[in-house]
Write a structure and sequence with these properties.
With about 250 residues, the chain is mainly α. The chain has a single domain, classed as Rhomboid-like (Rhomboid-like fold, Up-down Bundle). Helix content is about 60%, strand content about 10%. The chain has eleven helices and three strands, in the order E-H-H-H-H-H-H-H-H-E-E-H-H-H. A three-stranded antiparallel sheet has the order 1-2-3.
């Protein structure tokens, strides 16, 4: 299931979401400009390599400072390929505006960065000896998905389900989508401990950690409703309430 659209309207332009998409895109274009050798050195410096912190000797031998913790943040703006960045940015594009609308711009930015750092910590703890650079905004965006589900438990999503070569579209509750998505991450994450060679290419525990952090802290950082303007009559999606739930016919 791939999310296509959200029924939750937003009252303010999602400038932070747009800015995050732009920054991620510019960082990816910079990666594309590097030669293979330069890119490898760049990723070992700015992506998250857990062995850098678990084995200081290994880090010093490769010119990496084990007391530099910036990669816990900077890795969240790097990506490993076109599909990686496009799928991540699309998820942010679908879920980000509604969450930003409820939190406010500054709080949303702090929330997003906190979820990304928390996801990086979760990945490092689950892969403490790994010398493979981990990178991507998936953990931070998982936090946004967790916040979305916590804020809008009755919301509905339009999802794409490819069947053979046919793209089929369905409307599903956001809670169901999040539950299926989270269970898949959890199964893969647990399986990684038993078969590292299978799970080593995806930071499953970053996804899990980011989602849990987003779900837990969003109500602590959201703005109260009285600080929002009221919805105008023509705002929102036809047939849906402001919280994204279905509005039955009278």
């Amino acid at each position: 299931m791939f999310p296509v659209d959200s029924a939750v309207p937003h009252r303010y332009p999602p400038f932070v979401t747009w800015g995050l998409v732009l920054v991620n895109g510019l960082a990816f274009l910079y990666q594309l400009s590097l030669s293979p050798a330069e890119l490898e050195a760049f990723l070992y410096r700015w992506a998250l390599v857990p062995a850098r912190y678990s084995d200081p000797l290994w880090a010093y031998e490769r010119g990496l400072a084990p007391d530099n913790y910036l990669p816990f943040l900077t890795n969240t703006f790097l990506h490993g390929g076109w599909f990686h960045i496009l799928s991540n940015m699309w998820m942010l594009w679908v879920f980000g505006p509604a969450v930003e609308d409820r939190l406010g711009k500054v709080r949303f930015l702090v929330f997003y960065l906190s979820a990304g750092i928390g996801a990086s910590i979760a990945h490092a703890l689950a892969n403490w000896d790994s010398a493979i650079p981990a990178l991507g905004a998936s953990g931070a965006i998982s936090g946004v998905v967790g916040a979305y589900v916590r804020l809008f438990p009755r919301a509905r999503l339009i999802v794409l389900v490819p069947v053979l070569f046919l793209p089929l579209f369905f409307e599903v509750p956001a809670v169901l989508f999040a539950l299926i998505w989270f269970l898949l991450q959890l199964i893969q994450g647990v399986g990684q401990f038993f078969a590292p060679e299978i799970g080593g290419g995806v930071a499953w525990w970053a996804h899990i950690g980011g989602f849990v952090i987003g779900w837990l802290i969003v109500h602590q950082v959201r703005r109260t409703e009285r600080r929002h303007r009221r919805y105008f009559a023509d705002e929102g999606k036809l047939g849906f309430r402001p919280d994204g739930s279905w509005r039955p016919r009278a």
